[in-house]
Model the fold of this input.
Amino acid sequence: MKTVVLAIIKLGLTLGLFALVLRSIDIADVILHIKRLPALTVLVVALLFMGQLIVSAIRLSAITGIIAHPVPLAMTVRINWIGAFFSQALVTFVSGDVVRAMIMTRRCAIPMRNSARGVALDRLIGLLSSLLIVSLTAPWAIQLTGDETMRHSIVVMAIVGIALIAAFAFVGYLARHPALVQVARAKIKEYRVIYAILDTLSVIRHLFTGWRHMPKILLTSLIMQLINVAIIFHLINGMGAEVSMWQCLLIVPTVMLISLLPFSIAGWGLRESAMATGFSLIHAPAAAALAASVMFGIFTLLLALPGGVMWWWSGSKIPLPEQ
Done:
């Protein structure tokens, strides 16, 4: 019952966000922009998505090598593909992460606790890489608009991003010391939410102990962010807008970061609202920005479908996670 209520709430929020965006954009214009998309652009975008899947699998393999033992690339591709399917099919991306952890436990001989740590670390690194890019590009992003409210929002987001990165690194560094961990756990054990959050963040410590894998993890994280930028660049330009790769770099990471907020189904609605707002700063057609965001979501959904087939035809299907 709780899952159904949550799904209904998220569906309502998703539809509401779409309604707000479409108040100022003609849906017929959006459809027209989508029809303009060349077949070659569709092929390039599909290849970029596939490349991103492989890069994400390389990162997960490196992370499992730090926490337990390296998982072969072919298996991590399969794990991430199935996880991507459940992130789209169920109410929240966390469901996909739960499935990934369960597969690693059952198929890769990694204890569930370590599997969960690996997936949590993979997710946190993705978040941190987004925050880092948003923070580093903030001085140039500010120059896109003269609106003081928007400029202040960009500054606040950059400061919050740097603060979160520093906080994650600090918690991870402290978590390397068993004595400090025991003291901290004893102090906050009664506060279950804080305890759970800090316990999850403590997986960052593995980056300090497995520093040899850091270059690969950081490089793959950067490449994944740049692939998102390249995908939107090709989509929005393929629909007739004239936007540079640099402008996309200043806008897209922030959009993707906003879409991670757990207020809608798989980021739908949030991503479209943020995309339309972001590209309005450079006077790109709002319909093209919205169309590019919609196509990004459709590509994500369609390319995740083979993950469902992999799960269905697996020798012993992983049970669905409880919401």
Summary: Residues 112-141 form the longest helix (30 residues).
